[in-house]
Amino acid sequence: MTDEIIMYESENINNILNEFKNALKNVKDTTPLTHCITNFVTVNDCANAALAVGASPIMADDSEEVAEIVDIASVLVINIGKLSETQVDAIRLSSEHANKINKPIVVDPVGAGISGLRNRITKELVENYKIAAIRGNMSEIKAVAKLINLDILNNENNDSAGKGVDVAESDIISKDNLDINGLIVKDLAKELNTVIIASGPIDIISDGDLTFGLKNGDEMMPLITGSGCMLTTIIGSYIGANDALIGTTAACTLMAVAGENAAKCVRENDLGTGSFKTFLIDNLYKLSAKELVERANLFEINV
Ligand SMILES: Nc1ncnc2c1ncn2[C@@H]1O[C@H](COP(=O)(O)OP(=O)(O)O)[C@@H](O)[C@H]1O
Ligand SMILES: Cc1ncsc1CCOP(=O)(O)O
Ligand SMILES: [Mg+2]
């Protein structure tokens, strides 16, 4: 599939690939404390993913302590996968405090579009706080765009049929819908003044100015719960130690190439998705900057 997309040489791509080595080193050298307010389904996977890439995770979602944790953290990651009333209070308190003391916030709008609660909290977050990055699958990113009435969704026939926490079949990013989805991601990033990442068989990453596609990863990745949550956590750790666009692009590439390597181990040993998760953590831990740059199928989307 890789060769179906024409990946032109681009100065912007070369520049960002040149930053990957430093981006990895910055995380390993500074061990960014990654404060996660997250769901109880994948919380342990997120903590292990952060540790594997060289960061230090702390999961804390009680209102009594979140401001103190934000004080010492490098980044706040908010994942709305399994909200509760008390968690929503903690999300408000910690976001307020993070903005006040200039700590970056990364948001994973898990299941945005499928319930009033998820929509309300997502809208509140993107409208009231400065967010460094938002990562979701294409259904979730379209839902965020819809919540803020992004023009392009009104103009085009782009209705998304949100399906639980997984991407809807019709929203899966492919070569055929890359331009329109690239435009949605770019416009949303520009409108919210943040970095947007829509993940899938091709990841789309934009800061509203530059827009990249990343054709790495493996079809086994969405067959374990937590691959999206882990990616958002890793993006958080990378933003805790790097510029937002560079950190995000390096983190997406790291996750996707680790997924490819993990899938290879699974297939070679005739194993299944349980082993895949273990191999994924192994490969997040083992991947070198050199291999990352060599394997990255990163290209510019000119929208
Ligand atoms: N079909 C696929 N082929 C290759 N990589 C994929 C595929 N689906 C998802 N990924 C990768 O899995 C990770 C999680 O993305 P995704 O499954 O979209 O998140 P979510 O769990 O939020 O739906 C990303 O690194 C993405 O690139
Ligand atoms: C299954 C599930 N239900 C609520 S949160 C969650 C985990 C979603 O994880 P991911 O979006 O990373 O696949
Ligand atoms: Mg998933």
From TrEMBL:
Positions annotated to bind substrate: M59, G226
Catalysed reaction equations from the record: 5-(2-hydroxyethyl)-4-methylthiazole + ATP = 4-methyl-5-(2-phosphooxyethyl)-thiazole + ADP + H(+)
Binding positions for ATP per the UniProt entry: R135, S199
GO biological process, one term: thiamine diphosphate biosynthetic process
Single GO term (MF): ATP binding
EC class name: transferase
TM ranges: none
EC number per UniProt: 2.7.1.50
Keywords: ATP-binding, Kinase, Magnesium, Metal-binding, Nucleotide-binding, Thiamine biosynthesis, Transferase
Domain of life: Archaea
InterPro entries: Hyethyz_kinase, Ribokinase-like
HAMAP family xrefs: Thz_kinase
Function statement: Catalyzes the phosphorylation of the hydroxyl group of 4-methyl-5-beta-hydroxyethylthiazole (THZ).
Name used for this protein in its record: Hydroxyethylthiazole kinase
Organism: Methanobrevibacter olleyae
UniProt lineage: Archaea, Methanobacteriati, Methanobacteriota, Methanomada group, Methanobacteria
